[in-house]
Design a protein that fits this description.
The chain is α+β, with helices and mostly antiparallel strands. The chain folds into two domains: 38 residues; 122 residues, Immunoglobulins (Immunoglobulin-like), CATH 2.60.40. The protein is built from one helix and eleven strands. The strands form three sheets. Strands 1, 2, 4, 7 and 9 form a five-stranded antiparallel β-sheet that branches. A four-stranded mixed β-sheet has the order 3-11-10-6, with no helix packed on it. It has a two-stranded antiparallel sheet with strand order 5-8. The longest helix is centred in the first third of the chain and has 24 residues. The protein is elongated and about 80 Å long.
C-alpha cells in the first residue's frame, strides 16, 4: 500500500509551498505596479493639444506649464454649496512631482480643493482629478484661483467663480 500523505503534511512541503505562494504574490504585485494597477490612481488618456469638455470649454493651460486642466474654469452659480471636478493632464514627456492643490485669491476661503487621484506624481500623458468645493458662506459673488503646482515648472491655474443668492 502506498503512503498518500498530502504535500502539505511535511515540514519541508509546507516551507516549499509557502515560499512558492510568496514568490507568486510578489511577482504579481510587481507586475501590477509596473502596469499601473496600483499607485496614484491616474488614468490613461490619449495625448491632445487641448481637451474639450461637454460644455465646450477648452483646457486651461498657463503659459509654459506642462499641465492642462479641463474644464478651463469652474462656475458655481446661485446653487449654494456644492462641488465640481477638474481633470488635470500632464502634457509633458516625463513624470511630474505635484504639490498639493491650493486655492488662492481674495475669496480663497470660499473654496476648498481636494486631491482625488493625483497623488505626488503624475506620469506623462496621464490624468488625475481634483475636486473643488464652493462653500457659499456669504451672499454675493466669490472669485478665486485653483493652483496646481508641479515642482520645477510653472503652476496651472483654473479660475473659480461662485455666487450665492439669499
Amino acid at each position: 500500500m502506498t503512503d498518500r500523505r498530502s504535500f502539505w503534511s511535511s515540514v519541508p512541503g509546507v516551507i516549499t509551498g509557502v515560499a512558492s505562494i510568496l514568490t507568486v504574490t510578489v511577482a504579481l504585485i510587481g507586475a501590477g505596479v509596473t502596469l499601473g494597477w496600483f499607485g496614484s490612481g491616474v488614468k490613461d488618456e490619449p495625448p491632445a493639444s487641448a481637451v474639450t469638455t461637454t460644455t465646450g470649454a477648452t483646457a486651461a493651460t498657463t503659459s509654459s506649464t506642462p499641465l492642462q486642466a479641463s474644464p478651463a474654469s469652474l462656475r458655481f452659480e446661485g446653487l449654494g454649496a456644492r462641488d465640481q471636478r477638474v481633470t488635470v493632464r500632464n502634457a509633458s514627456a516625463g513624470s511630474l512631482t505635484l504639490r498639493r492643490p491650493t486655492v488662492a485669491g481674495v475669496d480663497a476661503g470660499e473654496f476648498e480643493a481636494t486631491d482625488l487621484t493625483c497623488g505626488a506624481r503624475l506620469d506623462a500623458n496621464r490624468t488625475c482629478e481634483v475636486t473643488v468645493v464652493y462653500l457659499a458662506t456669504k451672499a454675493g459673488t466669490a472669485t478665486a484661483t485653483l493652483v496646481i503646482q508641479p515642482e520645477g515648472a510653472p503652476a496651472l491655474e483654473v479660475a473659480l467663480r461662485g455666487s450665492r443668492v439669499i
